[in-house]
UniProtKB/TrEMBL annotation, chains A, B:
UniProt-listed Gene3D superfamilies: Aspartate Aminotransferase, domain 1 (3.90.1150.10), Type I PLP-dependent aspartate aminotransferase-like (Major domain) (3.40.640.10), Winged helix-like DNA-binding domain superfamily/Winged helix DNA-binding domain (1.10.10.10)
Key words of the record: Aminotransferase, DNA-binding, Pyridoxal phosphate, Transcription, Transcription regulation, Transferase
PROSITE patterns: HTH_GNTR
Domain HTH gntR-type: 10-78
Family that this chain belongs to: In the C-terminal section; belongs to the class-I pyridoxal-phosphate-dependent aminotransferase family.
Taxonomic placement: Bacteria, Bacillati, Bacillota, Bacilli, Bacillales
PANTHER family: HTH-TYPE TRANSCRIPTIONAL REGULATORY PROTEIN GABR
Stated name of the protein: GntR family transcriptional regulator
MF annotations from Gene Ontology: DNA binding; DNA-binding transcription factor activity; pyridoxal phosphate binding; transaminase activity
Length: 478, 478
């Protein structure tokens, strides 16, 4: 009897749907006939019932089967003849477009987390529930007055939030701006998407840090851009290397993450910042400053933004609430010359007709509330604690097998593994043991690197998570 | 003395910024020198002070000038030499990318509404404040329990909302589906954007109704698609014409809006629906059913969706809360085979990392609340009233100068003007008189057509608005 292939790249439910579709089209189950129950099929095929439910859902959405409560699942009596010739070839459509799918490692991690919510999560770049100001947000939502109108938003975003962001940027990031130069986005991801889609053209070359979070984003390739890496050491990129890159590849834009970089945690030193701005201004090159982590500095130090040192107007500044409050709010911002803001706002209108006003109201209130500063202080303290727990656990579980620099802010720890192991095998083994991380190659590094995010996992699970990871690693090098 | 050119396409503030930049770079205002005050410059140039503020903002964001409270606006003392050579050429960047700007008429209308909020608005395709359930939404927001977590959402959207939408579709639209086949989007705009970006490839041909809302969306052209119109009469498209279009142009997808179409208000008759599905299934062609208005039927009749008649799985179904509750919520949905939903969800992750959970929670509660049905009843009654007010006003103000069919649902009235007038001149004249509408050519029709939206304007302003429109029209045909 046929069984789905567990080693195939095709998901189990799709294999089952294809198999059933074939049996139906061959006449094994004629129109109107009753199919075996979900439970029975699951038994026969040796899969979870939920997998069969997904497969039935697929066939139902294609009009091949029909379910009615109490009477089971039947093959449709097609109104217009036998199905397989007539249903659009959805699979071919799903392969259309210039939009590349997400990286296989990232899809694998997402799938593993969906299948097993008990996995200890060192992969997701976000904060745990106890680090987010959930009570404060709920209170601010409840205190909201009835809106006088809930129509389409201003293309640049909700005016009171733009004002609150301008004031926040002045207080915390040394950036002087006004609401007309602020574009509210749903987060850094949307900011980067707008920049790559609207300000750059297919074939353009851009420079990013190597390693960098930006390597994990297929959006650069989807936009037809050519990506060149600027090698980074513990202090981030060496700006002088931009000159030769520009000569060779006519670089059009530089993307950097100067404060507690993702994934390395590096903090770009002041002299390199000055040099970076100097070279950019000399060459007339725009810099995109992605700045999600700067407020997490564990010592509460005020790390200046590149933008605050930018006297020439070279820097497009990107920030968000995702890593300092809650990623599920989906509130971020960009500061740019008004002509750029207008262009990006116009394009965004065409993509999604703007953002929901409700989370913007909440965010504006939160930024201006007396809760904001105490929340930041607590966040910094807790993140430092989690970093220390992670480092202690690594020292204990993997002495001499792992190397890292200790980050002074942010939510990521970047590690080099001493033994040589295969990234994909290590990830699979770790998932089996009950823990996920992101292989360094996702960020453009050679194999043998690992990003552990300590923002998301609960403090009490960090030790166990690293013990599981150590088991996985030792299983492979045994 | 130099003055900005009011007839130029370039906004006044940009002209002023360019002019000041030039004077600064020519040394008229050396580094560190004080610029004239905003008020004084506004007087000299004969513009509003707010225009000068915008121009200063532009120069400030380019690092050319600096303002400090109490000490006025100075030319920057650049750290790295004179500016003009060194600032990135932002204007050239703003022209980059494959993303086309919005249509000039639509940008003109948006600009006019921003400049003068007192304009009577027959242009915006949305509901007025009194038609939106604002009190109910505020109540549901206040009653929200504190979320247990506010992290990144499931790529397909918030599970309880997907369940609520599946139940809504079963009850109201005759569509049987499960949450695994539902993708939550920020509205029909995002649904269409995902479809055009991810399921179709540059060069593909698609068919849309002529006239159609879809003509107003540059996203089709931005995705490199070739668009072909299916001529529509009062009953919408004649499906037989699809065959010849497919033969000539290898059409890959058909976009229709069968219930109270935007802009014509047409309701596709049952026999044409059957025929449309028959032809699509015969040719294996997918149909995108855009269904924002069906629940606004003034007689409360249950207009079936195409999707409910689709036995073959040809139809991708798109709906939203924008036209039946509040466009500012930004909540919509799509029903598609799971493989398509997965592909689009993955792509959306890359564009914006998913939607905010907060409006999705509110929407899920609203759909399942006892407020929903009474709200719909009130909405239908009020929209019928507004339609009648609009029609009476047109009969009174423009007898014999205007022709239309009376819609039985939706928020738009599509009119043919009897006298020949220039679209652009009519719009400008109307803006001067204090009213906006959308010229029919935006929707692909010949000139001489007008779309009046009666959802947005207050009932008490409809008569005045049409009187102003009549004045504008008569001024041009005098």
């Amino acid at each position: 009897m046929w069984k789905p292939d567990r080693h195939s790249k095709k998901p189990l439910y799709e294999q089952i749907a294809d198999h059933l579709e074939q049996r139906i089209s061959y006449g094994e189950f004629p129109p109107g006939s009753l199919l075996p129950s979900e439970r029975k099929l699951a038994e026969q095929l040796g899969v979870n019932r939920s997998t069969v439910i997904l497969a039935f859902g697929e066939l139902r959405s294609m009009g091949i089967i029909e379910s009615r409560p109490g009477s089971g699942t039947h093959v449709s009596k097609y109104k217009w003849g036998a199905v397989p010739k007539h249903t659009p070839n959805w699979k071919r459509y799903a392969e259309g477009g210039s939009f590349l799918p997400n990286l296989p490692f990232l899809r694998r991690i997402r799938e593993a987390l969906q299948q097993n919510p008990d996995l200890i999560d060192f992969a997701s770049g976000e904060l745990s529930a106890d680090l987010s100001p959930l009570g404060e947000i709920t209170e601010l939502m409840g205190a909201q007055p009835s809106p006088s109108y809930l129509g389409y938003d201003h293309p640049q975003g909700y005016m009171p939030l733009r004002q609150a962001v301008a004031s926040y940027l002045d207080r915390y990031r040394g950036v002087q701006t006004t609401e007309s130069s602020v574009l509210i986005t749903s987060g850094s991801q949307q900011s980067l998407y707008l920049i790559t889609q609207c300000l750059l053209s297919p074939g353009d070359a851009v420079a990013i840090e190597d390693p960098s979070y930006h390597y994990s984003l297929p959006m650069f390739q989807s936009a037809g851009l050519r990506i060149f890496g600027l090698p980074a050491d513990e202090g981030g990129i060496r700006p002088e290397e931009i000159r030769s890159l520009v000569k060779k590849h006519r670089i059009k834009m530089i993307f950097v993450n100067p404060n507690f970089q993702n994934p390395t945690g590096a903090l770009l030193p002041d002299d390199r910042r000055g040099k970076l701005l100097e070279i950019a201004s000399e060459l007339g090159l725009p810099i995109v400053e992605d700045d999600p982590y700067s407020l997490t500095d564990y010592d509460g130090l005020d790390r200046p933004s590149l933008k605050s040192m930018d006297r020439v107007g070279s820097v497009l500044y990107i920030g968000s609430l995702s890593k300092i409050a809650a990623s599920g709010l989906r509130v971020g911002w960009m500061v740019a010359p008004h002509s750029i803001v207008e262009r990006l706002a116009d394009a965004r209108q065409q993509m999604d007709f703007g953002l929901s006003v409700i989370p913007q109201q909440v965010a504006a209130r939160f930024l201006e509330s007396p809760y904001f500063e105490p929340h930041l202080e607590r966040l910094r303290m807790q993140l430092r604690l989690k970093r220390d727990l992670l480092i202690d656990a690594l020292h204990q579980a993997l002495p001499k097998l792992i190397r890292f620099h200790v980050p002074q802010g942010g939510i990521h720890l970047w590690c080099q593994l001493v033994p040589e192991v295969n990234d994909a095998k290590l990830l699979e083994e770790a998932i089996k043991k009950g823990v996920v991380f992101v292989p360094g190659s996702v960020y453009g590094s050679d194999s043998g690197y690992v990003r552990f995010t300590f923002g998301r996992a609960k403090a009490e699970n960090i030790g166990t998570g690293i013990a599981k990871f150590a088991e996985a690693l030792r299983a492979l090098i045994r």
